[in-house]
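I have been asked to look over a protein record a colleague put together. What it holds is a sequence and that sequence's fold in token form. Please read both lines and tell me whether the tokens look consistent with the sequence. I do not need a full report, just your reasoning and any doubts. This is what I was given:
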Amino acid sequence: MENRYIFFLIVLLFLGDLIAINCSFMIAYFWANQTNVFLQSSHYNLDLLIFNATWIASAFFMQLYHRETAQRTEFIFQKSWRAVVLHALTFNVVILLTNYALYSKNFLVFIFVFEIVGFLISRFVITAFEQYHIKRVRHKKKIAIIGYNETAKRLADYFIKNQMSYNFSGFFDHTEKSYVDKSNQELIRPINSLMEFAAQNEVAEVYSTLFPEDYHSMNDLLSVAEQNCVRFKFIPDVTKIINSDYAIDTYFDEIPVLSTRSEPLEHIANRVLKRSFDIIFSLGVIVFLLSWLIPILSIIIKMQSKGPVFFMQLRSGRDNKPFWCYKFRSMTLNSDTEHIQATKNDSRVTKIGSFMRKTSIDELPQFFNVLMGNMSIVGPRPHMLKHTDEYKAIVHQYMVRQLLKPGITGWAQVSGYRGETKDHKQMVKRVEHDIWYIENWSIMLDIKVIFLTIINTAKGEENAY
């Protein structure tokens, strides 16, 4: 998964640079007007547009806003001064070739001197941000590596160099007890201690340079990792033939990485797109629907039974972290809500509650969960903590669904696996559909699920009770 703070750094870098070059241009224009420097151009806005366009072209040509550049400040500085030089040349060439405006040499010198000063200030802020972030270990992805060989060492070196995104936690290899490699001064721990270490240190991903044929308990280790929401990926030995369905996920200094599954939402651009869609859609529902529906339902709910209007329950969220899920209260107050799912003709359900559950209106307050970031509009449905503990022990790959934010609706729900799960096979099918969604996400798939949800609600669903 790409680190969101690298994305924020790139955005900060881009916006800071735009401020720097625009301020330099405005200050130079002001100075020129005050000192009567020769300046033959009456099209300020167009001049500024050309100045910005040539900068953006220069910066992108130099890959200043590339993910790999943002990982280290020295790369940012290196690309920056090259981009500034290219910008000065490009802007002057455009002006000379078009004869659009005549500027004195002094004006052109001053405009780029001011630009350099602006960039020095901007790079100081970026450096401070990076140093602050590097110290905030909890915001970085913790990584462990299985195997201690040349490939593993190269991979560890990559993670160590890119401290903005990763926190390398150590090697795990074939050994009965921990030892320190004298040549590299690295601590190598036994593989069988990996998952205990991962749980205690919040390791997010494990990269293995060993395959099942190299370690007899690898498949068991993979299952335990998925149960604990730890992503497991393999670094292939290119000298071997790999007969597997592993998906090539990304590269670290030209090292191919294989993932146990493809996850489109590992990429920051896709996550930004999904989150933006969630925010816009949920705001629309809250403003145009819930703003008047909440007062009406509040009165009816209160009239039919004592208790609060909203029902809050701890549910399992992304990475199995619990969160408070909101609903309109559809049942009378009882002590079984944390243990027993709603069933057909459930005596606890009120009259208005029955209507809300059949039409899914009781789920509408979850748009507040979406706005707060606990949920997404589309995703695996969140289960009660008790049921998560029960199902992960008996359903293979159940916890894989917890790698994603839970949704108000989901692919499993629109495919007929909604509501009470009466037997083991139903939950297996639900999990299969949730994993399929994780591996095949697209914004158009989300829109399709939303449309299907509306259609199914209008038709009436058999399992909605």
